Amino acid sequence: MRVAVLSPISWRTPPRHYGPWESVVSLLTEELVRIGLDVTLFATGDSQTSGKLVAVCPRPYSEDPSVDPKVAECLHISEVFERSADFDLIHNHFDFLPLTYSGLTDTPVLTTIHGFSSASILPVYEKYNGRSHYVSISEADRSPALDYIATVHHGIDIAQFPFSEAGGEYLLFFGRIHPDKGVYEAIQVARQVGRKLVIAGIVQDREYFETRVEPYLDGDAVEYVGAVGPAERSQILGGALALLHLISFDEPFGLSLVESLACGTPVIAFGRGSMPEIIKHGETGYIVEDVERAVEAVALVRALDRSACRTDAEQRFSHTRMANDYVRVYREILKLEAEDEK
Hints:
CATH superfamily of the largest domain: Glycogen Phosphorylase B
CATH topology of the largest domain: Rossmann fold
Radius of gyration: 20 Å
Strand order of the largest sheet: 3-2-1-4-5-6-7
Shape: globular
Distance between the termini: 21 Å
Number of domains: 2
Number of strands: 13
Structural class: alpha/beta
């Protein structure tokens, strides 16, 4: 099977630090190659893959200011569709824009919808609903206006996240510094329970960081360690008592939660979006309603079995499971396309 995988170009595939979509694409691509598929990855020129790499954008536009994002995206997306006859299937991880090319090729296009940035993009998905194939990354993130061929939860390379049986004493926020992600709420929980909070992630909203986060940073009770790369990620996750994910939006998935569970660290989260699909309440963490309930959960979290967190991640969220799920979807699409041609 010849598969073209279209990755975003905001970051390298795999990312050096932040880049959740690119991370998923890399893990999927490498596993597809390992199990024998003929995979061509369309990504930035500095990307790393054991498959074939096609790149028209040498560097990610989020890392190189000289790259014009709109120009780079147009050239990048058009490249895969101009070569579409070389593939049995195109797997799009680039959001909605590639769909506007999908009517110009006979090669089937599968789009993994990594969440809806806003309701304004839905009309594009609706227009191509009848001729494209969609995968949701959680049951919670499905739109009733669309048809889906499957839900495929993201996977991680479990081996990259060593199990930490003991954990530590600090609480952890791990993700984008943005109002949606609940950094301020995590600070309030840590202050109320008298535990240190470590904050790791890129600053995506500078004003929010300066007004709601920075005033509490003292390097002692609240410490910001910046963006954490693969080398430090498992150490900081595994060393925590619990991960706080007190979001104010409907999270489409939540890779940091799965990474935390793989290290044995339970998660305390507000029950928005996909949280109930990832966290087993009372077993691998707690789903709570507000800051007060999160404070109560911190007092309970040490009683949870950290090995149960690890086992759950291994069983439900490995990249091998993710790749096998996608191969089944690929085969189903090709079968449907063959039947339509009869």
